[in-house]
Design a protein that fits this description.
alpha+beta; three-stranded antiparallel sheet; RING-type domain-containing protein; binds zinc ion; metal-binding; single chain; Znf_RING; zinc ion binding; zinc-finger
Length: 355
């Protein structure tokens, strides 16, 4: 038994990271406004926080500050509540707890969080100690304005009904004792968005073993290059293909993405590889032509009388200045194109250093 799991883990570990890095960047763990990954700790510019309103929205502290400073009509977050940015923002403790679970790490280019463990530790409701879930409405997380949370069921039990035009429930947060009124007993919130994203990703990657019909993530499945069988689990691989050449399906999938990427990027680059030299050659020919014609025009001034010579001279200078104007504008664009490409090139080197 021990041997099997060592075999399986070794193969999975080998390529799991590639697959996860590709596929498992959680969009919901980046600020919804500036796309910066949230910080795991409080007091940072990218600490997750949320609006204080009936249409709770997650964003980082920096975006909260920026949005708050704007006139309400110019804010990215719009809802019918007039008090969205009225109060001092609290860190979203639920989010920070999730990020600190040890299941996530920032991916190589620091663009987002990827999963580093086989399964993710879902935060629990601090009242009933049940894991939050998106499949069971009672267990859905209810995020409080103070950034703490509890499940829908515990909120229903602990909150007190109040009569107010729009607010119906009053609750003292059991963790920070902050008392706040709420309009409904369940609502959309950033943790729910994360749970939904997680479940979507898991379904997307789930595969069934063609032999034993056990379900497992794609990167725990294999194909056999010797007998041509695709999609079987590690255990069936051990039993039926132990002397065969088997490949991790995650690797096959990554290879597919790689080829698709090649296909997409090649014509993109090729287009400029072809059109730049052509345009350049055309341009140089025109400049030579221009030079010949302009010098010829200047040469004719000698044969003119005073006034027409003066007009002609002015005309020649104007044409020269016009050419300069056109070319200077082009040079500006050419330079910014150059520095733009240089910047992109330096990204390749950065990626090499961090990998
Ligand atoms: Zn932000
Ligand atoms: Zn709002
Ligand atoms: Zn609960
Ligand atoms: Zn609280
Ligand atoms: Zn199997
Ligand atoms: Zn085989």
């Amino acid at each position: 038994m021990a041997k099997k799991s060592v075999y399986r883990d070794a193969i999975i570990d080998l390529h799991k990271h590639d697959v996860l890095a590709f596929k498992f960047v959680f969009k919901s763990l980046n600020c919804a406004l500036c796309s910066t990954p949230y910080s795991k700790t409080a007091n940072e510019v990218n600490t997750p926080t949320q609006t204080w309103c009936v249409d709770i929205q997650a964003m980082c502290m920096k975006c909260h500050e920026e949005q708050r400073a704007r006139a309400p009509a110019l804010r990215a977050h719009q809802c019918k509540d007039p008090y969205c940015f009225e109060y001092t923002p609290c860190p979203s403790y639920c989010f920070m707890e999730l990020l600190s679970s040890g299941c996530f790490t920032l991916n190589q280019n620091l663009m987002g969080y990827v999963q580093t463990t086989q399964s993710i530790t879902i935060p629990e409701c601090p009242i009933c100690n049940e894991e939050y879930s998106i499949e069971n409405s009672q267990r859905e997380p209810f995020i409080l304005y103070c950034g703490h949370g509890m499940c829908n069921e515990c909120f229903a039990k602990m909150s007190k009904p109040i009569t107010h035009t729009s607010l119906k429930y009053n609750l003292e947060c059991p963790q920070c004792k902050r008392r706040t009124a709420y309009a409904q007993e369940s609502w959309e919130n950033p943790l729910k968005i994360f749970l939904r994203e997680l479940s979507e990703k898991q379904t997307e990657l789930k595969r069934t073993c063609g032999d034993c019909e056990k379900e497992a993530p794609l990167f725990e499945m294999f194909q056999c290059n010797d007998c041509g069988k695709v999609m079987f689990c590690a255990l069936c691989g051990m039993r039926k293909h132990h002397s065969h050449k088997i490949v991790d399906l995650g690797v096959v999938e990554v290879k597919k993405w790689m080829n698709a990427t090649y296909e997409a990027i090649t014509p993109q680059i090729k287009a400029y590889d072809v059109c730049f030299p052509e345009l350049q050659a055309d341009l140089i020919e025109k400049i030579h032509n221009f030079q010949a014609k302009a010098l010829e025009k200047v040469g004719k001034i000698e044969g003119l009388s005073y006034d027409p010579a003066k007009d002609e001279l002015r005309d020649c200078l104007a044409i020269g200045a016009k050419l300069e104007g056109i070319c200077e504008k082009y040079l500006g664009d050419l330079r910014s194109c150059n520095t733009g490409i240089e910047k992109l090139l330096s990204r390749f080197d950065e990626a090499k250093e961090t990998s």
